[in-house]
């Protein structure tokens, strides 16, 4: 079945960096806009970053602009989130999301999430 598997989360000190990866399988990855969301305890899930099918970043949350970079490798069916200058408020579960376009419109998939904890 369709899979989105996130990896790369963990515990990092404030000011540190992490690189999240999301490996996709069993769907036409290059036909999907890819997004990273996050959800902190007690808060709603929020969109962090989005990237077009061709690899152009569409959007970043104001809170991560200048610190996070989204990218994708369609040959590897993988989307990445490079997170620099991490802050305590970046602590959350990070989710990978795929949204179909064109003939795949209406299809939407989620990964299981990876925990990011920023703490000294």
Verbal overview:
The chain has about 120 residues and is mostly beta strands. The chain has strands at about 5, 10, 20-25, 30-40, 45-50, 55-60, 70-75, 80-85, 90-100, 110, 115-120. The strands form two sheets. Strands 2, 4, 5, 6, 9, 10 and 11 form a seven-stranded mixed beta sheet that branches. The chain has a four-stranded antiparallel beta sheet with strand order 1-3-8-7, with no helix packed on it. Strand 5 (about 45-50) and strand 6 (about 55-60) form a beta hairpin. The protein starts with a strand and ends with a strand. The mean pLDDT is about 95.
Condensed summary:
The protein is an all-beta fold and 120 residues long. It has strands at 3-7, 10-12, 18-25, 32-39, 46-51, 57-60, 68-73, 78-83, 92-100, 108-110, 114-118.
Question: Which helices and strands occur, and which strands form pairs?
Answer:
Blueprint: E1 3-7, E2 10-12, E3 18-25, E4 32-39, E5 46-51, E6 57-60, E7 68-73, E8 78-83, E9 92-100, E10 108-110, E11 114-118
Parallel strand pairs: 2-11
Antiparallel strand pairs: 1-3, 3-8, 4-5, 4-9, 5-6, 7-8, 9-10, 9-11
